[in-house]
Structures are given as C-alpha cells and as structure tokens.
C-alpha cells in the first residue's frame, strides 16, 4: 500500500533509479495484528523476508524473536538488540562450522529434518534444543514450498529419538504450510501430524514442548486475503482439536505477513513496444525485473498491485518485463497485465506490497545494474 509517508518521501526525495521504500508504521501495525490474533504464540520474524536493520531493530523493540537461516542473519538479529534466547537457527541445511559459530554466539534452538543434520548439531552444539521439520502439501498457498525442507511425519519420531540419544533436547515439531497461504484451515492437517508425533515421542520417554507453526501469513496483493484474526482462530481451533487441554508452546515465523504490504517499489518505464505492426499486445519494459528484486513473479505466482500516474484512463493488457539481457526477465506474459494505454517511456510506476523478498532476492550487479536501493522510513 502507498501510505502518505511513502508518497511524501518519494515526492520530496525523488530518488533516482528503482528503489524500495518501507514504512515502519505498517510493520508495527502488522506485528500488533499478529500478536493480537495469536496472543499465546511467540513471534519469530523470518529475517530473510527483509533484513533491513531499521526493521529488525523495530521488531526487537516490540518484543519479537527471530528466525534465522545463516550465521550472518544470527548476527543481524543480535546487532538489532535480540538476545540469543530470542533467536532460532531455522535452516535445516547448515554447515557444521556455522552451527558451532551460532552456538558460540549463544544460540540454543536449531531446526533439523534428518539424522545427518542431528549428528552435526550434536557435535557442534552439544545439549542444544532441536525441533524436527515435517513435510506438508502446501495446498492453498500462492507460493507453495517444495520438498527441499522437512521429512515425512512418520520419520520425525526417529529423527527426534536420534537427537535424544545423542544428548540433544528433543524439543518439538515444525512445518510450513506454504508462503502466501490463503486458507486459514491449512494448519489443521499439519497439527494433526504434530500431535501424533508428540504422542509417539511420549511413548518413547520424550516430552516435546513446542510446535513451530511456520510462516504462510499472507499479504494482500490483487486479491483480498483473510484477516489475521481468522488465522488465529482457525489455528487455535485446530490446536484444541488435536492437543485437547495440553496445548504446547507455539511459535510463528511471519515474514511476508509482517513486511510485505509495508513496502512500495518505485520503477520507471524504459520502453513500450510491439513485436509486429499487427500485434495487439504491448511490451512494457521497466528498469527493474526478476533480477532486480521481483523474483517472486516466477511462474507469475505473485501478482503485485501496480499504480501509475495515468491510472483512471483506458487500459489494455500488456506483457511486463525487466531491463536485463536475459530472456527469463519477463514478469507477466502468460496472463498479461492491464495497464493504461497512454503509459509511455519515462513514466513512474509504483509496485505495491513489495516489502518482502525483494531486496534479498535482488542480484548484486547482473548486467551491471546496481542492487535495489532501499529506504526504511
């Protein structure tokens, strides 16, 4: 969304080139909404969504914890003011020396999804708490996750037993129902699996204490999405149904849902052209594309709201593409995007809801283009 603060910043500063502007007031509002919707769950912000120091510091002040995927992200969270007990190393694919470094920094909570990862944690972070990530189908998510992370639920008990045998604390279960999850009921089946794992571990003498509900909380792009309260109620109902009166500690890992709608990406039209004199479809090229931060347009999964200075005039579908010399740098072609017919070279375009997974996905200097500039206001 384009807040008055963002609009004033762009009007007054007139930054040259594509840039992202994030409004901290929106981040604060999103944190409050999630905290209100899930008051009994600790929030572990997914640093990978947007690691801007100003955002991390704000969230640390608000009481957020942090989900990190690397030693660098661990250090970012600590620099922002988070104590080690408010940080988890949530990547299930870690170098042993990185586990050791995180352990030196005081991190005591680690994700695993295999026997081999458990063994690395046991060697490098003896006595640490671990939670096992399980696979989910991701149905209902606009950006479904692959089978890269997690193990089959039936295997999780053995993974946690192995951790227990090696002196680690088998602490809980985690899952991720898919990014931009539009179905509040998507957590139910995963929680049913988690409850079964809790029972099986108890039979083996292990008392698990935590369920990591993952991320998935959405941002409104072109379609309405349920409010945070709907997710909170659905998740609580599922916890009650599967765990009864013995509901475990829960944590959530919002990324997109925390910062997505807080950011607006300013871009410029570089070229408007057609591929033949009879072609009815225009090609509109922007000065930012897949390699400049809009990687989530891959397979046209995320369709961002786009505003132009010519809105309100007649529109027609166009193919939207980025500026680089790579044929993959096309944002919307399978389903062309309606933009004003009068849109022309040099016009400013504002791409809304780009606060998440833009600066972190942008290339360093592909084709010599500068990395995406970012301002947090």
From TrEMBL:
Pathway: Amine and polyamine biosynthesis; putrescine biosynthesis via L-ornithine pathway; putrescine from L-ornithine: step 1/1. The keyword Phosphoprotein does not apply. The active site is at residue 325. It comes from the Bacteria. Residues 26-259 form the Orn/DAP/Arg decarboxylase 2 N-terminal domain. Signal peptide: none annotated. Its cofactor is pyridoxal 5'-phosphate. InterPro entries: Ala_racemase/Decarboxylase_C, De-COase2_N, De-COase2_pyr-phos_BS, Orn/DAP/Arg_de-COase, Orn_de-COase, PLP-binding_barrel. GO terms for molecular function: ornithine decarboxylase activity. Keywords: Lyase, Pyridoxal phosphate. The keyword Lyase applies. GO terms for cellular component: cytoplasm. Its EC number is 4.1.1.17. One of its GO terms (biological process) is putrescine biosynthetic process from arginine, via ornithine. The modification N6-(pyridoxal phosphate)lysine is found at residue 48. It catalyses: L-ornithine + H(+) = putrescine + CO2. Belongs to the Orn/Lys/Arg decarboxylase class-II family. This is ornithine decarboxylase. The lineage of its organism: Bacteria, Pseudomonadati, Pseudomonadota, Alphaproteobacteria, Hyphomicrobiales.
């Amino acid at each position: 969304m384009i807040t008055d603060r963002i609009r004033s910043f762009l009007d007054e500063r007139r930054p040259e080139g594509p840039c992202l502007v994030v409004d901290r007031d929106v981040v604060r509002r999103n944190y409050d909404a999630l905290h209100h919707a899930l008051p009994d769950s600790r929030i572990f912000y997914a640093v990978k969504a947007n690691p801007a120091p100003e955002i991390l510091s704000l969230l640390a002040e608000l009481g957020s914890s942090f989900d990190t995927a690397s030693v660098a992200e661990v250090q970012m969270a600590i620099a922002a003011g988070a104590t080690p007990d408010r940080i988890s190393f949530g990547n299930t694919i870690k170098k042993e020396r990185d586990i050791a470094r995180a352990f030196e920094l005081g991190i005591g909570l680690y994700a695993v999804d295999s026997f081999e990862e458990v063994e690395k944690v046991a060697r490098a972070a003896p006595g640490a708490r671990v939670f096992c990530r399980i696979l989910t189908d991701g149905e209902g998510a606009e950006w479904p996750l692959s089978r890269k992370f997690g193990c089959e639920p039936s295997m999780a008990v053995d993974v946690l037993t192995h951790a227990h045998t090696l002196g680690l604390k088998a602490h809980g279960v985690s899952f991720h129902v898919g990014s931009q999850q539009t179905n509040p009921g998507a957590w139910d089946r995963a929680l049913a699996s988690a409850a079964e794992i809790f029972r099986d571990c108890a039979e083996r003498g292990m008392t698990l204490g935590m369920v990591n509900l993952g991320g998935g909380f959405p941002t409104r792009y072109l379609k309405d999405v349920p409010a945070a309260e709907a997710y909170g109620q659905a998740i609580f109902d599922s916890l009650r149904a599967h765990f009864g009166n013995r509901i475990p500690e829960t944590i959530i890992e919002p990324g997109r849902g925390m910062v997505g709608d807080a950011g607006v990406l300013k871009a410029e039209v570089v070229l408007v052209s057609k591929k033949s004199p009879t072609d009815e479809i225009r090609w509109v090229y922007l000065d930012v594309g897949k390699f400049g931060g809009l990687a989530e347009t891959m397979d046209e999964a995320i369709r961002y709201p786009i505003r132009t200075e010519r809105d309100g005039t007649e529109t027609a579908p166009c193919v939207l593409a980025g500026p680089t010399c790579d044929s993959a740098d096309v944002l919307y072609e399978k389903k062309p995007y309606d933009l004003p017919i009068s849109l022309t070279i040099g016009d400013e375009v504002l791409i809304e809801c780009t606060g998440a997974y833009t600066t972190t996905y942008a290339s360093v200097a592909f084709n010599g283009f500068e990395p995406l500039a970012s301002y947090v206001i």
